[in-house]
Amino acid sequence: MKLLRYGLPGEERPGILDNQGRIRSLSGHINDIGGTALLPAALEALRALDPAQLPLVEGQPRLGPCVGQVGKFVCIGLNYADHAAETGAPIPKEPIVFNKWVSAINGPNDDVQIPRQSHKTDWEVELGVVIGQGGRYIDESDAMSHVAGYCVVNDVSEREWQIERGGTWDKGKGCDTFGPIGPWLVTADEIADPQALNLWLEVDGTRYQNGNTGTMIFGVRHIISYLSRFMSLRPGDIIATGTPPGVGMGHKPEAIFLRPGQTMRLGVEGLGEQLARTVSA
C-alpha cells in the first residue's frame, strides 16, 4: 500500500493511492497515518480494504508529511563510505546517531526555508524507515518485522551550524522545514529488498546525487537493532538511514550550497519523488 496524508498543514487527512494513482480517503477507517494505525494488525485491516470502494478525493490537494504523530526522527550519519570520503571523515565503526526535531518535519513538496544567517544549507536524499511494531533490544534477525514501511527523506542540513559551531550535529539538522518526508509511506510488503534501491537528487535540474542503498555501511536490519539498544522504538518513529555522495559540502573543486529560489527534486526507487522550492525564512 501507498499511504499518505493530504490537506492543509495541521489539517491533514489519511488517504491511500488506488491502482490509477488517485487518492482515496481513509477517514472512515483511521484517524491518521501514524501511531497505532501503523501496527501490523492495523495495516492488515487496511490491506483488506478495496481502494476502489473508498471515497475519491477530488482535485490535487497538498500532500502533507506521510506520517503523523511522529515521536522520534532519528538519523544515521556518514552511512555511505563514499559520502564519508567526500566530507573528509573516517569510516565510522559504529552507526553515528543524531536527531532531527519533529518540528522540522515538512511535506514532500512544501517550501524548504533557508534559515536566517545561514550560508551553508545543504541537501541529502535518504531512505526513511518507519517503525510499526515497537520494541527494545530487537534482535537483528527479527528487525524487519518491526518495519511498517519506507519513505523518501531529505535530510536538509546547515553545515556551518552542524560542524563549525561546536556541540552536537543536531542544531544544524533540525531547523524548521529541514525534514521533508513522503510523498507516501510505502508498506514494507511492497519493497522486496530495502538494500537494493536507487536514490537520487537534483538541484535546478542538475543531478548531484546518484546512489544505491546496497552500499550502506550499516544496513536497515543492523540500524534498527542497534538503535533499540539505546532507546525504545515506537510506532511511527522515523529513521533516516544516511545519504550517498554528491552533497553540496563535498562538491569539488568548491563546495556549493542552497540559496533561495532553487528547486530540489529527489526520489528513492519505488517510494516516489519530492519537489521542493527553497525560500528565505
What is the H/E order? Answer: EEEHEHEEEEEEEHEEEEHEEE
Mean pLDDT: 96
Flag low-confidence runs: none
Helix residue percentage: 10-25%
Shape: globular
**Beta-strand level of the residues, as a percent range?**
25-35%
Radius of gyration from the alpha-carbon trace, in angstroms: 18 Å
Number of strands: 18
Distance between the termini: 35 Å
Structural class of the helices, strands and pairings?
mainly beta
Could you give the order of strands across the largest sheet?
3-2-1-13-10-9-16-4-5
- Count of helical stretches: 4
Q: Quick one: biggest sheet?
A: 9 strands, mixed
Descriptive notes:
- Strand 2 (13-17) and strand 3 (23-25) form a beta hairpin.
- The chain is globular.
- It has helices at residues 40-47, 81-87, 159-164, 220-227; strands at residues 2-6, 13-17, 23-25, 73-77, 96-99, 105-106, 112-114, 121-122, 125-131, 147-154, 157-158, 179-180, 185-187, 198-203, 206-212, 238-240, 263-268, 272-280.
- With 281 residues, the chain is mainly beta.
- Strands 3-2-1-13-10-9-16-4-5 form a 9-stranded mixed β-sheet, covered by helices on one side. Strands 7-18-17-14-15 form a 5-stranded mixed β-sheet, with no helix packed on it.
- It is built from 4 helices and 18 strands.
